[in-house]
Amino acid sequence: MKKNENKLLKWVVNGIFFVISFIALFPIISLFISSFRPSSTLMRDGISLTFDPSTLTLDNYLYIFSDGGSYWQWYGNSLIISLLAIVLSLFFSSMVGYALAVYDFRGRNFFFVLVLFILMIPFEIMMLPLYQMMINFQLINSYTAVILPMIVAPIAVFFFRQYALGLPRELMDSARIDGSTEYGIFFRIMMPLMLPSFAAMAILQGLGSWNNFLWPLIVLRSNDMFTLPLGLATLLTPYGNNYDLLIAGSVMTILPILVLFVFFQRYFVEGLTVGGVKG
After folding, report:
1. Which terminus of the chain, N or C, has fewer Cβ atoms within 10 Å?
2. Contact 43, 69 (CB under 8 A)
3. H helix or E strand, kind and range, residue 236
């Protein structure tokens, strides 16, 4: 009897999770189906799960792959910016967070409070000073202008600091006795132990950089420098709305995030849970 009750409970729980999963995936499924519809059908029926198989077409994707020159330029820009932002942010933020966690120096608590303070300030408040800095550095309409404010992310510093608090200090002492430098301790010993945190932050930072719209809109000027969110936004104009190409292009933008998550998903939950409870 108890075995049957456990089996029934398992089916109920699985059914609930299936419904929740379908609700979460509904926008993506609808977007994918709508990407095969012509513009006239989209304007009439909108984005939905219901469709007429006879109206589906590959023309939207064929146009993107054959004639979408600007689209692939935007795609390449987004890939370059996102990859550089992820690598640089993980490198510098991890070093700052690690230093705040394991070294006892004067002003450590002050700098950590400063990180928390910056974390609480909305980005919209800092846009004008950052924009003025980019003008003074003559970096407008460049990759550097988009990436520079992301190099040391407060949320990443906080996360790495929390994770590094749980690292065994005995390994550091042993490495010092063996003559290793502080940089050697970090790169050869501590960094491999922090891989789950790197994976979690790579996904979060990559997602934020890939979908970033406001800051690139401010600092980029020319069409050939646009990122995907900016480029896709140009498809909607007062003179015509290319919803069919916009939706097909949006589906293609999901692929890098899926690839990133697939590669790092084994560390993602571990990194978030451990980094969130330490300290």
Report:
1. N
2. no
3. strand 236-237
Q: What whole-number distance in Å separates Cα of residue 75 and Cα of residue 106?
A: 45
Cα dihedral value 137, 138, 142, 143, nearest 10: -10
Structure tokens at 227: 């990122």
Say if residue 197 is exposed, middle or buried (CB neighbours under 10 Å; 0-12, 13-18, 19+). buried
Burial 146-180 (b: 16+ CB within 10 A, else e): bbbbbebbbbbbbbbbbbbbebeeeebeebeeeeb
- Which of 127, 96, 107 lies closest to 214 in space, CA to CA? 127
| pLDDT for residue 132 | 93
pLDDT, averaged in runs of 10, over the chain (279 residues): 71 88 84 81 71 78 76 90 93 93 89 90 89 92 91 91 87 87 89 87 88 92 90 73 79 82 69 49
CA distance 196 to 201: 9
| Token digits of residue 226 | 């646009």
CA contacts within 13 A on the Cβ side of 59: 9
Rounded Cα distance, 191 and 82, in Å:
22
Closest CA to 182 of 102, 105, 89: 102
Q: Which residue has the tokens 């451990």?
A: 274
Q: Which two tokens stand for residue 240?
A: 């015509």
